[in-house]
Amino acid sequence: MSASVSVSPASETGKLGNRSDGWKVLTLENGVEISKRRSGSLHMFRSRWVLRSVSPQQFITVANAIDAAKQWDSELVEGRYIKDLEDNLSIIRLRFGDNSKPLFRKREFIVYERRETMEDGTLVVAVASLPKEIAAGLLPQQNNAIRGFLLQSGWVVEKLEDINSCIVTYVVQLDPAGWLPKWFVNRLNTKLVMIIEDLRKLVQTTAPH
Predict the structure, then answer these.
(1) In this protein, which residues make up the domain named START (predicted)?
(2) Which of these, 183, 172, 207, 176, lies nearest to 48 by C-alpha position?
(3) Closest listed residue to residue 37, CA positions, set 145, 116, 152
(4) How many beta carbons lie within 10 A of that of residue 165, not counting itself?
(5) What span, in angstroms and rounded, lies between the C-alpha atoms of 36 and 8?
(6) Mapping DSSP to helix (H, G, I), strand (E, B) and coil, where does residue 161 land?
(7) Between the CA of residue 67 and those of 59, 62, 94, what are the distances in Å?
(8) Domain residues of the chain, as ranges?
(9) How confident is the model at residue 5 (pLDDT cuts 50, 70, 90)?
(10) How far apart are CA 31 and CA 12, in angstroms?
(11) pTM of this prediction?
(12) Residues near 67 by Cβ (< 8 Å), separated by ≥ 6?
């Protein structure tokens, strides 16, 4: 039987709903906080959850760039590691097909993924697009593909006193490139931060029986 995973109310930790760091809380319900902060012409979005019966290590095993991209859009055509630069630094290609949602349709992203463990046990995964010139040198752009730009994205997984529970924070800011109305991009970016729910389910299916 899979390990039980539940989301606890934010009041149990007092760490959600903090408005002092420049983020505007859009919703705080059932232990899920969705916030946004303007950065340039696009908003940055953040999702924070308190997960019970999930250790930081359990969650981070599925919180990588490829598994996250599968939750963005089920029509991910290709997700592969191009190159490992260091033990904790990799270059990845994410490619979406003709049947993907408008935000990703016929788009590809060349990103780096860096993984770090802090002294207090906090796990951090940072994902962002490589500069265009470097990405082109590693993998020339195909004529029929639009190369989008993941401005910044990533995870912070903090352990709680209960070692089998954690607070998960996911941040994303995406510029798909090509013409799409900014309001449309911002609205879909809001949906991206809800992928923690899908990854939580993935943890359930991959947890030791």
Answers:
(1) 19-186
(2) 172
(3) 152
(4) 21
(5) 22
(6) coil
(7) 11, 6, 10
(8) 6-12+23-201
(9) very low
(10) 9
(11) 0.75
(12) 199, 202
Side chain identity at residue 169, one-letter code: T
Check: CB of residue 176 under 8 Å from CB of residue 184.
no
Helices (H), 18-173: 56-60, 65-72, 132-138
pLDDT (tens digit per residue) in 47-75: 888 888 778 888 887 777 787 777 777 77
What contacts 103, CB < 8 A, 6 or more positions away?
A: 73, 174, 176, 180, 184, 185, 188
In angstroms, the CA 117 to CA 13 distance is: 22
Residue count of the chain, please give it. Answer: 209
- The number of angstroms, rounded, from the C-alpha of 183 to the middle of its chain's C-alpha atoms is 20
* Sequence-distant (≥ 6) Cβ neighbours of residue 115 within 8 angstroms: 60, 88, 89, 123, 124, 125
Containing H/E element for 203? helix 195-206
How far is the C-alpha of 127 from the C-alpha of 63, rounded, in Å? Answer: 11
Backbone angles phi, psi at 127, to 5 degrees: -130, 130
**CATH architecture of the region 6-12+23-201:** 2-Layer Sandwich (3.30)
